[in-house]
Amino acid sequence: MSLSADAVLAASNAWVWIPDFATRTETDEYLLVRFPDYFDHPLEVMRFTPRRPVETAVADVLNRAREFGLPEVYWWVRLDSPPGVPEALVGRGGQVAETLDVLALDLSRGAPELPAPARAVELRWVTDIATARDGARIDVAVFGGSMPPDDRLAASADQDGTSIPGGDGRTVVAYSGGAPVGSGGVTLAEGVARLWGGGVLEQARGQGVYRAVLGARLDYAVARGAKMALVKGRVETSGPILRRAGFEGYGQELIYKVPLA
User: Fold this and answer.
1) For residues 29 and 48, is the Cβ–Cβ distance under 8 A?
2) Which of 25, 15, 21 is nearest to 37 (CA)?
């Protein structure tokens, strides 16, 4: 069963994650977020809804971004971005850093049955700092950035330890042979399971680890009443796996890396 494009668009545009420890600059036209240095994208434009000519508004956002003293900003061109934004960014030296498929799955009839992994996989939800550290190492290996400090890992483990049994979700880590090989997160919002951070170490790919992590998150979401699963998957890696699992595409979002020098 297909979901309506309007429902997926609304759910996708509503999805903005900003941790409490990030710095946000927000106006009625844009949302600019400064993440800690260990993030792979320390500075991001996460929302852009200009009420003026695009060129003028883009210039103002970039001027504000320069105040953070970083060499570049990562700019999300979302499904609801106005025309002309990509051209304005490219004209200022911007290049596409990532292309993401916006994919959704109807969960009203339950989670799909996924093929079992080719290798034995143990799944652990993050509730302690050791598992949080394992998940963070996978994130760094797959997506970039660097390891968070221990106090941040401890805070994340405490948060997950509350949110997972409380039905809000968070992070699951996959182990094979006792070693962490994959991880992924899920958060629930208004009946939508937002799937994020799904990744597998290169040496463990092609053996069903990603499917195991995906299945755990979908089962968790369905058990807590989610009717839609939504993910923004990398076109080259997770996108094909998600489509084989029954997800359908509803467009693409681009992330531009724009120099600030």
Assistant:
1) yes
2) 21
- CA-closest candidate to residue 68, choices 21, 41, 34: 34
Q: What share of the chain is helix, strand, coil (3-state, %, to 5)?
A: 35, 30, 35
The per-residue pLDDT for 234 is 83
Distance CA 52, CA 146 (A): 38
What confidence tens digit (pLDDT) does each residue in 221-259 have? 999 999 999 999 887 778 888 999 999 999 999 999 999
The count of other CB atoms within 10 Å of the CB of residue 140 is 16
* Pure H helices in 15-100: 54-66, 85-90
Low-confidence ranges of the chain (pLDDT < 70): 1
Cβ 43 vs Cβ 34: under 8 Å: yes
Q: Domain-by-domain residue ranges, the chain?
A: 5-101+254-259, 109-226
Q: Distances in Å between the alpha carbon of 137 and those of 132, 151, 236?
A: 9, 15, 21
Q: What is the pLDDT of residue 105?
A: 97
Task: Report the distance separating Cα 251 and Cα 166, nearest Å.
Answer: 32
Out of 3.40.630.30, 3.40.50.300, 3.40.50.2300, 3.40.50.720, the CATH code matching 109-226 is 3.40.630.30
* Tokens representing residue 89 in the block: 């960014």
CA distance 207 to 190: 33
8-to-19, 31, 78, 193 alpha-carbon distances in Å: 24, 21, 13, 12
Contacts of 26 (CB under 8 A, 6+ apart): 32, 47
